[in-house]
Amino acid sequence: MSWKKAGTEARLLLVGIPVALWSAFPIYHIFLFAISSKDSAFSGALWPAQPTLRNFGAVFKQEHFFLYHFWQQMWNSLWIAATVGFLTLLIATCAAFAISRLRVRGGRLVMNAALFTYFIPAAFLAVPMYKAMSVYGLLNSSWSLVLAMVTLASPYAIWVLKQASDKLPWELDEAARIDGATPMQLFRLVYLPLMLPSLVAIGTYALLLAWNEYLYAFLLLSKETNVTLAVALGHFLSADDSPWELLMATGLLYGLPPAAIYYVFRRYMVGGLTAGAVKA
Amino acid sequence: MASVHFRDVRKSFGATEILHGVSLDIADGEFVVLVGPSGCGKSTLLRMLAGLEEVTRGEIAIDDRVVNEVDSKDRDIAMVFQSYALYPHMTVRENMGFSLRLRKAERAIVDERVGRAAQILNLQAYLERYPRELSGGQRQRVAMGRAIVRDPKVFLFDEPLSNLDAKLRVAMRAEIKALHQRLKTTTVYVTHDQVEAMTMADRIAVMNEGRIEQLGEPLALYDRPANLFVAEFIGSPAMNLLDARLRRSDGAAWVELAGARWALAAGAPGADGQQVKVGVRPEHLRLGAEGLAGEVVVVEPTGAGTELVVQCDGASLTVVVHGRSGARPGDRVLLAPGPDHVHLFDASSGARL
Question: Which of A189, B26, B70, B105 could form a disulfide with B4, with the two C-beta atoms 3.0–4.6 Å apart?
Fold first, then answer.
């Protein structure tokens, strides 16, 4: 290795190491709390004197007032996230196929509308959404959160998938038409397999958006057995004497599914999301 | 097996008409090449036959059936695209069998037809590969295989060789021609390359600006181009064209150009004093004792012959000499064609006299 190359490497490390530490520290902090006993959590040590897994046991066995419905809430989070991912994907894929490949009338309008909703912050719509859900009588049903999240995720999903669709060569559609494919066969046998990387990326995006959502979940769901884990975590802070070690243990568990999904689909995430991000 | 008929076919995109009434009858089993510069409408005509573009006016018929309103899939045609348009997520076998699969053909039949097509095209070893694992020439053959498996009434080729390198193009040209001689399926082939047209076609339709300029057998087009456009387009190197005045006296006819005169055949058409364009193919110009004076500028030996570029009074003429030539740049030469090899075109309309 030449000196010049070594110099470049050193400079990269000089930037990279602090950034890595900076990002990892909060996670380490959570981990540290989660394996500390209640008394030693605030000791300030970088490693607890007696590390313990008891906090996780307490969470799994739902042994605290804030944790009575842990498994139910975990299930709520999972179910809602998965449903949002699936529905968003269904809507966005069909929309992108119709607009990009079948070139239906009004496609441009839909695309412009989708882009326009980008400019409206989700928080801005929280109260109107609450009102709408109450009109439909959906408050406190997990469907209210599912529908709200699908509404928020779809425009971006449609936009990205439409851009990705546009990149598929048009001759493939024509070849399939001449080969005798109906639009549905084209969709199923040619379009979907070729869009798979983008579909995985967008499905994951919608799923994680719903998994991470706090504000809407907090507004639309209120029963202990209905709320998602994100909201349940917030409840920990309503006590005067919050059980920090349990909060952090639960938080760590809450962070695992997204980490696992990112890890499994990491190959698709970067390519898939940037594929449609820039108009070629 | 089928005949194809275009009857006064027109195509407009918005207010712009790009095909101005094309009529063309293609016989059963014939290999017809549509050739012309880009934008002449040849691809559009092919795509209309394929059902990928709507017919604005006129009629397209396959056999006796007008197909203007018939879906691509029901026209019983197969098309080979310039980009090959292979399905990237399917193996060669799946690509070739896709159309049969859509028609719910039995597995045994699909396997048999794909196998036979693969054998014809020498693709047996590649059936389980994906398109990305194939070379350009192999992809091209898979695209043809996909068409063969269909056993369609008509093959359509849209510039299928444009993405191949020169050597492969020549090889595939021969392969396509051999394939046609074997299968005898009616074929419409679009290209901008006149060499492809000349070598492959039973008949060529030369197109320009949305019209067919001339339709005929390759050598007929070469020997008797109907107008200036065809004269310039067909043949390589291109025909030499010069401004001249036609003269006739006492049964003899000649053209006057830049102080020289070229004799014409006895039956040459045209009136005394008429302004004409004179066309002479490069291989029909001779270096001799009399004729048009010029200076050799470039000498290009090709091995089989020699190509000379001669500067004559502002015009640049190409001369192809059979075998080796002793000419060198700077030489003064006199050029004259054989009287039977002079083409005369009307100076204003461009039509053959």
Answer: B26
Sheet order of strands, B16-26 included: B16-26, B4-13, B57-62, B65-66
Which residues, given as ranges, of chain B have pLDDT below 50? none
Cβ burial, residue B315 (10 Å; 0-12/13-18/19+): middle
Pick among A103, A171, A179 to test the B interface (most B CBs inside 10 A) = A179
Note the pLDDT of residue B270: 83
Cα distance between residue A213 and residue A231, in whole Å? 9
B104: CATH: 3.40.50.300
Nearest Cα of chain A lies from the Cα of B181 at a distance, in angstroms, of 24
> pLDDT, tens digit, for every residue of A156-169?
999 999 999 999 99
Q: Evaluate whether B73 touches B22 at the Cβ level (below 8 Å).
A: no
Q: How far is B97 from chain A (nearest CA, A)?
A: 10
Cα of B266 to nearest chain A Cα, Å: 55
Of A172, A174, A180, the CB nearest to B52: A174
Which helix (H) or strand (E) element contains residue B77? strand B77-80
A280 falls within a domain: no
Looking at residue A277, what is its pLDDT? 41
The mean of the pLDDT values for chain B is 91
Contact: B88, A171; criterion CB under 8 Å: no
In the numeric block, which tokens belong to residue B180? 């046609």
Q: Long-range contacts: B174-179, Cβ < 8 Å, 24+?
A: B175/B121, B175/B141, B176/B144, B176/B200, B177/B31, B179/B120, B179/B121, B179/B144, B179/B148
Cβ count near B335 (within 10 Å): 22
**Residue A184: closest CA among chain B residues belongs to which residue?**
B102
What is the pLDDT, as a whole number, of residue B272? 86
- B129, two tokens: 């590969």
A-chain CB neighbours of B71 within 8 Å are 177
Number of structural domains (chain A) is: 2
A4 has a pLDDT exceeding 90? no
Q: Does residue B190 belong to any structural domain of this protein?
A: yes
State the smallest CA–CA distance between residue A193 and chain B in angstroms: 7
Contact flag B51-A178 (C-beta cutoff 8 Å): yes
Answer yes or no: do B72 and A193 touch at CB < 8 A: no
The CATH number of the domain holding residue B316 is 2.40.50.140
- Closest residue to A194, CB basis, from B71, B79, B88: B88
| Judgement on whether residues A92 and A30 belong to the same structural domain of the protein | no
* Least confident residue range of A115-129, A258-272, B250-264, B329-343: A258-272
Q: Are residues B92 and B29 in the same domain?
A: yes
Query: B259 or A189, which is more confident?
Result: A189
Interface test with B, best of A167, A174, A177, A178 (most B CBs within 10 A): A178
What's the one-letter identity of residue B296? V
According to the model, what pLDDT value does residue A206 have? 93
Do A160 and A108 share a structural domain?
yes
Minimal Cα distance from B151: which residue of A? A179
Mean pLDDT of A9-13: 91
Task: Provide the domain limits for residue B108.
Answer: 4-233
